[in-house]
Amino acid sequence: MKTLLITGGAGFIGSAVVRQLINDTQYKVVNVDKLTYAGNLQSLISVSTHPRYKFEQVDICDAAEVARVFREHQPDAVMHLAAESHVDRSITGPADFIQTNIVGTYTLLEAARAHWNSLEGERKANFRFHHISTDEVYGSLGDEGFFTEETAYEPNSPYSASKASSDHLVRAWHHTYGLPVVTTNCSNNYGPYHFPEKLIPLVILNAVNGKPLPIYGKGDNIRDWLYVDDHARALRTVLETGKLGETYNIGGWNEKTNLEVVQAICALLDELHPQGAPHAKLITYVADRAGHDKRYAIDATKIAADLGWKPQETFETGLRKTVAWYLTNTDWIKGVTSGDYQKWVQQNYTERSTA
Ligand code: NAD
Ligand code: DAU
After folding, report:
1. With a 6 A CB cut-off, is 198 part of the ligand 2 pocket?
2. Averaged confidence pLDDT in the chain
3. Is the pTM of this model over 0.90?
4. CATH 3.40.50.720 for the 3-191+226-253+292-314+339-354 domain, yes or no
């Protein structure tokens, strides 16, 4: 039975990956997460007592602790998702982004390299370091064209610059030391368990509570949306079948302006939660994000042609599932909005083990 070390497994995408790996595969999963404000063990309640799941509360910048985790769990592969992920926070406070996304990735690469060097035979030959990154490293598009794997890096925000740095470190560890790596660059994810600082969950919860729906600028910036479980399936596909040293772009071919996204959420809420309809009356235009990238759009041809991955959800089916999830999962939402999810961790979790 193979062991996967997942960093950031208590976050939005990481928790979807962990739930999928526990439910759909036979892998053992070691979730390494510092539990920042974005880490929420309540997103993992359904798998937390599973015999193939272990949790390690560790900061990826802590070299000694990271080395201990590799020694104790002897992973066959690493999926690296831990990061500071919110662009707005990177503008007001970039330090944590530099630390976790760059220094943390470096620390993890060095631990993975030492571990890989200690392996022999099949285990060494099959080891993988999968770096999970973003389309934001490519910068901003005009009205035409798509990001391909050959697009030059032009990161614009402190967040995307820190992720671009981490991508370059991963590339260099492959080129210089031969570390077996694959990298993926994905577009905007949405779905259940998304922290309500990001556009889609923020708008759903604000609309339900009759609060303003803040739209930056004119609402004409374009993002390319992918349902989080489709991303998790793509990550597993790349981990298992991706070619070493390659990068794969992941996207849903779902370009929408922010205004279109917010209007679609309002229309779904008018149907599923008619109290307060029409919800679109809450739309409020606010000051634009500094340096706001205009358009992202992923060309996902390579992963489809080479590895056979395609998204299962359209934006319409995925958004309906997402809105319905936020309307029914009130315990998770209460935990997040009250801040109790962090107290819950202290009450239900004793250091270094879920056992
Ligand atoms: P998230 O903010 O929801 O979760 C990040 C997780 O990392 C949290 O559980 C947090 O506790 C953990 N973490 C942060 N700093 C840490 C540290 N120093 N040590 C250990 N753990 C730490 O992020 P997400 O949206 O799930 O994104 C996951 C990854 O996917 C990130 O690398 C992000 O750049 C990338 N990505 C995200 C999207 C998206 O739309 N959300 C799209 C493409 C790529
Ligand atoms: O493209 C992938 C990236 O998508 C990931 O790498 C990031 O980790 C992830 O957070 C996401 O970044 P964005 O900045 O695109 O996501 P966010 O949900 O913050 O914003 C989406 C769009 O909506 C963006 O154009 C800004 C706008 N926006 C956002 C918020 C929070 C608003 O108009 N109002 C808001 O209140």
Report:
1. yes
2. 96
3. yes
4. yes
